[in-house]
Design goal:
Number of domains: 2
Distance between the termini: 54 Å
Helix content: over 70%
Radius of gyration: 24 Å
Order of helices and strands: HHHHHHHHHHHHHHH
Number of helices: 15
Strand content: under 5%
Number of strands: 0
Largest sheet: none
Shape: globular
Length: 379
Amino acid sequence: MEASSYTVALLLILKSAVLTIACTVFVDAVDRAAKNKHANTSWWLHGNRQSFAYAATVAIVIVVEVSGLLLALVQTASIADAEAQRAQANAIFAAATPSILSGTLLMLGLFFLVVDICECPRWLHSRKLQDVKRDPLAVYVEMYPTLMRSTVASQVVGALCCLFWFDRCGSDFEPLWSVLLGGALPGAHSAATYLWRSFLPSLVLFAAGYDFIFWAVHRAMHKSAYLYKRFHSVHHKYTAPCALEGAYFDPVDLLLGNLCPMFLVAPLTTTSGVTILLLSVTGAASVCAAHSGYNLKPLHDPGIHDRHHEFYDVNFSSFIILDVLFGTFLGEEAGAKRREARRVRARARLRTPAGAGGAEASSAAPRRSPRLARLRLVD
């Protein structure tokens, strides 16, 4: 890839990094001001103004990212040399891949937020998995500062990794619209041929490799009380997940458990830049669906990961194969039985008399805090 192409790509990456860092600083300042009950300067955050301030940062990010991409494409179209134009197009899509991934998560997350708030369409809202009484907008507002910090990590690290991938892809890369319109790819002469001979085999290999690394890191996060408390507990703040919780991680946890598997596996399963782009978007959509909290069968079964958030010590993988092999899979029927057993134990504790036997038992056994119980994966 030519030096001028790298310059354009690095400028796009720098623009995304500066933008997300500036928005993160602003969001953190708003969050601190909103939490400071004694501050006289936070009058403008009363009511729903905090959510409006966060919505403004989303709008700014979308406008700046889209306009920057369009300007880069316009400049690329003006290049007379075909090879130089192609190389710069590769670099632009490399720098834009993490933004497209984040945009996919954001759009799907906002869609499910609207479903939660408006309870429309009713056929989808009626398929809610957990009946939890909470304000969905308040949950998103509380999550947003952490989401912005995670976005900084994913934008910078992801864009640099993608730039390396697309450079290695070389002439195998074709713009997305070329594939959709039937443009030629190496070994593929139409969109249908590309789909069956290139994308789907790569998707299967990518899913298998990604899930193995994700499962290993995810289970390690739960097995180690330190790793769980320091990093992964952020993701498990809510037992009933919502769509954007798919990106609600401590930045270190996001890099180790989600971005690293994607960045390591994708270039090993394909040399096609457009395939890497589509794999990233497909993965983002799958993560969002898994945390949506809605029954999306037959397209997706979020109930599997929903039970992981409910019980903590089951269903660590994105698919069920590794959990079945290692005995950590919890199906729908078994989950219902475990849920009912937990209710029975809770009712029994409430009915325990405060007499001598109960007092002696409670004094003889050390009390376990709910927080420590969660860390040790005890229901």
